[in-house]
Amino acid sequence: MKPNHLDDLQVRADRRIMHTYPPGKAAFVRGKGSVLFDAAGEPWLDLLCGLAVTSLGHAHPAVAHAVAEQAQTLVHTSNLYLTEPAIELGEALARILGWEDANVFLTQCGATANEAAIKLARKHGKQQADDKVRVVALEGSFHGRTLATLEATGQPAKHAPFEPLAGFVDHVPYDDADALRAAVTDQTCAVLLEPIQGEGGVRPVPDEVLLAARDACDQHDALLIFDEVQTGIGRTGPWFAFQETPVVPDVVTVAKALANGMPIGACMARGQATKVFQPGDHATTFGGNPVTCAAALAVLRTIEDEGLLTTARRRSERLRAGLEGLIGSSPFAVGVRGRGLLLGLELDAPVASDIEVACRSRRVLVNAVGPDVVRLAPPLTIERTEVDHAIATLEAALAEVASNADVPRT
Length: 410
Ligand SMILES: Cc1ncc(COP(=O)(O)O)c(C=O)c1O
Fold this sequence. Notes:
Blueprint: H1 5-16, E1 30-32, E2 35-37, E3 43-46, H2 49-52, H3 61-71, H4 84-97, E4 103-107, H5 110-126, E5 134-138, H6 147-152, H7 156-159, E6 169-172, H8 177-183, E7 188-193, E8 196-197, E9 203-204, H9 207-220, E10 223-227, E11 251-254, E12 265-269, H10 290-305, H11 308-326, E13 333-339, E14 342-347, H12 352-360, E15 364-365, E16 367-370, E17 373-376, H13 384-404
Parallel strand pairs: 3-15, 5-6, 5-7, 7-10, 10-11
Antiparallel strand pairs: 1-2, 2-3, 4-12, 8-9, 11-12, 13-14, 14-17, 16-17
This protein binds pyridoxal-5'-phosphate.
């Protein structure tokens, strides 16, 4: 290992990379399955998947092969011309959505998928009335960092440095069906929400709120948009989280895990939402890039061929049982929330960052997604022994933090 590989990289990053991120917590040179390796060759168990992205594990051979083969065949043409992988991906996404009439706009990431969805909804609204451009979103949500998606994000602290914003989004509490119903008016073109808030702390939105959103959208001819950027592609159990809720949205966005780490996003519509965009309304140079689409097709094929949604459900049961086992037997641990392999360990004190650090000192990656919740989003392919190692590490981390800390408990 180079001496202080992390420190060396940080010094260079500080000089040449814009300071949008806090200092790096570790540095890695390669990965395999659920494990990342640092420059010393030490293995780290990755229970976070690069923020719910590498769901098939690192360096998955099917994805690596698809990328290499497509890169040697055709990398880019622009959307002036047709290529097979983008169209095949549209067909595959329609199939897993289960929507006969689905169509898809391909982008590079979650924010650009949501940006497309917001523009689609605003055009849908304007076709009815000039002022029907408002969006209702939930407090605590996260939808991205472009200006429109930042505005939709229900976290005022993230708005502050960039205000004034355009002022077209109304936020309501994530668990208040009446407030949501009251916020939707004839000026509303869309309700936008994550079925489980990821960055907001792994908070499932109650079914009654989802039902109220569906109902209010139907009454006011607004579109219901589910941001499944984090929850999509098997992360919570089914292909899409909405498939285990009582509602069907008009538009779904996805990104993160779709191409296992290659940059991609998709805005997917059904029904009247499929007819809104016309040539010239929206575009992006890299949308439908053959290499990223080939990677996404490899991801979807692998999940289907290897039955990974079923495997992931089994691993989720084991992980959840392990986490629940910490409640009562370990300090701080008071609850588990989330679904599938997007789980949050609830704590009774604001020590999530300390737990993250204590896990990291044991070369296990988790993340404090709030002061009192630790997020786990391991690969769908995580091994049973790795789940057991995760639980043992968390147990040790909780004990260590309790022995060091004199923290007020809630
Ligand atoms: C639910 C959700 N929407 C949108 C985004 C933004 O995605 P990206 O960072 O790919 O732009 C994220 C990222 O964490 C997310 O979790």
